[in-house]
Amino acid sequence: QVQLVESGGGLVQPGGSLRLSCAASGRRFSIYAMGWYRQAPGKQRELVATITSGGRTIYPDSVKGRFTISRDNAKNTVYLQMNSLKPEDTAVYYCNSVPPWIVSGNDYWGQGTQVTVSS
Fold first, then answer.
1. Edge-to-edge, what's the strand order for the sheet holding 34-39?
2. Is the dihedral of CA 90, 39, 112, 70 positive or negative?
3. Is the N end or the C end of the chain the one with fewer CB atoms within 10 Å?
4. Given CA atoms 73, 75, 77, 79 in this order, what sign does their dihedral have?
5. What is the C-alpha separation between 9 and 109, in angstroms, rounded?
6. How many CB atoms lie within 10 A of CB 118?
7. Do residues 115 and 10 lie in contact, with contact meaning Cβ atoms separated by under 8 Å?
8. pLDDT per residue over 68-105, tens digit each?
9. Contact 71, 77 (CB under 8 A)
């Protein structure tokens, strides 16, 4: 059974840092590109970091230089280190494969973890 469990979110001041974790199970984790997505209120979900099975990382300009994705295949876990956080980074953050895993014909998503950047 596929499961993605995100953790590590919270309230942080602008300029602060957070480290998110995502534990995956139910799939052969190491062969998939994995990513962190986020969805802010009233906006579509967007991909903010990708790490391939070979360890190559990809970021959009909005987070490049501030976010770092990494993975530990032995622990089936993917991480997102977020530095220099801005209020516009406020969103629910989700991890998933890239593209997302499909379960019973639909994209599967975990519960996500809320990140709020505010003074």
1. 10-12, 113-117, 91-97, 34-39, 46-51, 57-58
2. negative
3. N
4. negative
5. 16
6. 10
7. yes
8. 999 999 999 999 999 999 999 999 999 999 999 988 88
9. yes
